Amino acid sequence: MSGRILALAGGVGGAKLALGLSFVLPPEALTVAVNTADDFEHLGFSISPDLDTVMYTLAGIANPETGWGRQGESWTVMDALGALGGETWFRLGDKDLATHIERTRRLRAGESLSSVMRDLAARLGVKPALVPMSDDPVRTMVATGQGELAFQDWFVRLQCKPAVTSVRFAGADTARPHPALLDTGGLRGIVVCPSNPFVSVAPILAVPGVRAALVATRAPRIAVTPIVGGQAIKGPAAKMLAELGHDVSALGVARHYKEWVDGFVLDAQDAVLAPAITALGMRVKVADTMMRNDADKRRLAAEVLEFVDELAVSGRHS
Ligand code: FO1
Q1: Who has the most CB within 10 Å: 116, 123, 236, 245?
Q2: Taking the model in full, what pTM does it have?
Q3: Digit-coded pLDDT (tens) for 65-118
Q4: Domain limits at 30?
Q5: How far is the CA of 69 from the centre of ligand 1 (A)?
Q6: Ligand 1: centre distance to CA 29 (Å)
Q7: Following DSSP, what letter does each residue of 244-311 receive, concatenated?
Q8: What CATH number should be reported for the domain holding residue 269?
Q9: Into how many domains does the chain fold?
């Protein structure tokens, strides 16, 4: 099958499947569109956590323990900053700081985020297209029992502890989407990576025009579950499902996507949920979705592509 795959990704889980897809597709056949609503300004720098996570992962230089930041990192600046009484709750390693310094300099000089990231990614050896969902600032704001919090305040500083009552994406109304998100006509397929549906995938869909383009395309749209056995593989997705009143399961995620996603990749541990997801009008593929190593990433990516092509041939609906 020819054509391009458009993958929608957030941070660590999204980056893993994006890497798998990069193993099985030629670089020109893969575009990874990344959430930028986790971005923030911190210590005077423009930080783009999800873009950097995907960039470092595709470059093979991500920190394998955390999933974010760079491998072989040192913390000299953070340690010195802490000794001066500075803010260290958001850990910026020395090598990672170089990315923030250079991105911030170029953004201040007037360059767009997509242009900066295209160049940084190329310099680190990333071959597939890596694009921000928008060049305009969009910021996730989390409403909690402790009031409304900026995303990284909630996620990192407060370790996702305050219960979430709602989420909004400040700036989304006027943000312009990256053209790759609108150019869905000739796609081979769209893959929603196993990222948080509420704070990684939802912001991408909130950029004007994106949801409509994803709804209108004839290309098969596949989502890979971020929930296995009722738990998030990483991060607060399960906690958010519960707090926002959804079923804490892959079925809860499938219900959330059912308006526009054609196929759902369900983990083998949750195979019992397959009939309920099929009843939503989606096709289901049961697979081992845990990506413990590169072989797992490659295998899952190949299965996802097989599913995309199956849906293209047999029709998208069950
Ligand atoms: N996540 C943490 O839990 N603690 C950190 O100190 C932290 C620092 C950090 C620095 C750079 C970067 O690109 C990401 C970083 N992250 C950190 C991860 C990140 O904030 C979240 O994983 C994402 O925003 C959620 O996808």
Answers
A1: 116
A2: 0.97
A3: 999 999 999 999 999 999 999 999 999 999 999 999 999 999 999 999 999 999
A4: 4-136+173-314
A5: 7
A6: 29
A7: TT--SSHHHHHHHHTTT--EEEEEGGGGGGHHHHHTTT-EEEEE-----SHHHHHHHHHHHHHHHHHH
A8: 3.40.50.10680
A9: 1
